[in-house]
Amino acid sequence: MVERPLIVEAPGGSGGRSVRVGDETLGTANSLHDLTVFLQCIGLVGWDELDVAESDLIEWHGGGPEVWPCQGGGPDC
Q: Shortest CA distance to 16 belongs to which of 28, 4, 5, 32?
């Protein structure tokens, strides 16, 4: 189980959101699915997108689990 804070940063210029656990950056998520995969890799096995979206373990910056500006591949992505 994760013992450090899970941080999903505000969308960056490319629309992706940096994902951190404590001081360790896991990568950049471009969708809730990407974030779910990152979290499964750090031990939250069996979690799906709904679990991630509803979790109190995640600190969302710059918008919640519904904020993914580049989903769908717009002109700025």
A: 28
pLDDT tens-digit map of 47-77: 999 999 999 999 999 999 999 987 655 555 5
What is the spatial distance between Cα 69 and Cα 30, in angstroms, rounded to a whole number? 8
Q: Which residues pair with 58 in a beta bridge?
A: 6
Q: Please state the rounded mean pLDDT for residues 14-37.
A: 91
CB distance 60 to 69 below 8 Å? no
pTM score, whole prediction: 0.83
- Distance between CA 77 and CA 20 in Å, rounded? 22
Q: Are strands 17-21 and 24-29 parallel, antiparallel or unpaired?
A: antiparallel
Report yes or no: 38 and 19 within 8 Å, Cβ to Cβ. Answer: yes
